[in-house]
Every structure is written in C-alpha cells, then in structure tokens.
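Human:
Take a look at this sequence-structure pair and walk me through the tokens.
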Amino acid sequence: MRKINALNAKTEAYREEMERDEKVILLGEDVAIAGGLMGQTKGFAEQFGFDRVVQTTLNEAGHGMFGVGLAFSGYKPIIEFGMLEFASYAFAAMVCEAAKQRYMTYGALSCPALFVMPHGGGYMLGGNHSSYGEGWFSNCPGIKVYAPLYPADIKGLLKYAIREEDPVIYLESKAIALEGEVPDLGVDYLVEPGKANTLVTGTDLTIVGWQYGILKAMESYPELKSLGINPEIIDIRTIVPLDVETITKSVAKTGKLVVISEARKRGGFGTDIIAAVIEHSYGNLRGKTPVWYVGGKDYPLPFGHGEKYIMPNKEDLVEAVKRVMQ
C-alpha cells in the first residue's frame, strides 16, 4: 500500500485503463495540451497519442454527443467536463441518448461512456461553478452515478466504471488533495459499485453520507465520542446503485439515522436514503425524532467565504445527532 491524493488516484485509474484497453479514449477541453484543469492528464497525449487523447473545442454539447457516438461504435470514451455546470450543455447526450438506448433497443445497443465532472463547493467559485449533481442524475433511469471521496475508492470505482457497458456519471469531489492509502502499482484494483463502506462501527445511531458529508462526519466523530455517543458512519460511495442493505441493517441495529449531504435538502438525494429506511426498516426506528437530514441551505453558493453560511458544518451535524439521541 502507498499514500497518494485523490487527484493522483484518478490519474492512475485513467492511465492503467488506457494502457490495458486501446479502445479507451479520453475527450475534453485541455486534456491533451494542458493536461486537464488540474494537470491530471499531463503527458497523456505524448504517451497515448492525440487520436486517443482528444482535445475538444469549447463545446460541451459537441464532445458529449461525440463521446456517445464513440460508445455506440465500440469505444470506451472518458468524457471530461471542467465543472458540473459545463456538463449541463451535454444533458441531451447523457440523459436522452446514453441513458436510454439499452432500454429502447431491447439490449441491442449499449453505451459504455464515462462522464466525469467536479461538483459541489469548497473552492469558493460561486453559484455558477458549485452546483450539485446528485439531484440531476439520480432521477435518470439508465445512468449509474458514482460519488467516492477517498483515493482508493476513486481509483477502484473509476477503473470499474471504464469497464462498464452502461453509462456512468462520475461526480468528482473537489477535495482533490485528500490523501489515503491505495494498493501498490501493478495491482488491478477494482471497487464494485453499490457497496457502501462502513468507516466506523457503532451502536447508538447511523450516520450516512458521501463525499463532503463524510468529511464532516469523520470530523465530528471525536466530539461525538467525547459526548458518550458511539455512531456508525457509512460512506455510500455510489448514488446509483445505492447499497440499501448495508444502511438498513445498520439502522436495524442502532434505531436512529442521520443523513448528511453538502447539497441542499430540497430535492436532495438524502431523501431517497431516508425513504429507503422508512420502507425497509421503519419498525426498527426508535425515539422521539429517530431520523434527521443535515443538508445545505436553499441558496446558490456565493463567491468567497460566504460558502460557509450555506454549506452544512460539523456543528450542524453534532446538533442533529443530539436531537436524534433525545
């Protein structure tokens, strides 16, 4: 095992899959010459050639649809968007074409395309560069949605996604400097989607989240322990498919649930997690207020440090836990 950051984990996944399969093609603005927005694909064009590392124009709708066409033709495109908002111009490609063709052709046509887009806050870039993707894509049948945080999960899920025969939306956390242990180079490491990771085992309540929500949950853990509260913390890692079984088994044990998400509560994916618990584990809930949802406020994120007034913080989570424990 070695320790690398989240951005390097992404780079390794891309490189390994492009070396493994010549049908894997990378598309996006700046991916060839500049090496991507964060330099994550620097040197790729020299290694794989400009026919496999395709520098696109400032036209996300164009390279989104071009990528879908490549997927229909037997290639495995990785379509990079600089931000989630830029991917909105390719919505028709992702939602109207990629997601639906397997169903509409009765399985005759698949679309093994990977759409990659950073989302969420943390960079203080304002409302036009800090939107959230869970609510956009989780309501679209036919698309899988991955949202890992830790480097090992990023690398394993990206490699798995590139090998998928169906379209995958990869929502990239902006915590790209986060470090963690990953398997050594040369190990063909994959993480299967739909398998949540229980980061902390506990008995008093279940905390479920992903990406920023997990950062806040782990940050809150020492304070909760000091209060005599022993939480179980679950990182779902993928939005679609969702590991309902791990969540409901945990709630059956603890009797209480707090969901935390960076995205705003209105229309947030956290409601789907709560609905799954109500459907499958309602009889196990205990207490006056056994369920709580911690999410962002219902405003676009402002530029600069104003983000902190919209995004949920550690204190919000601790107060939610106290409420549920009453």
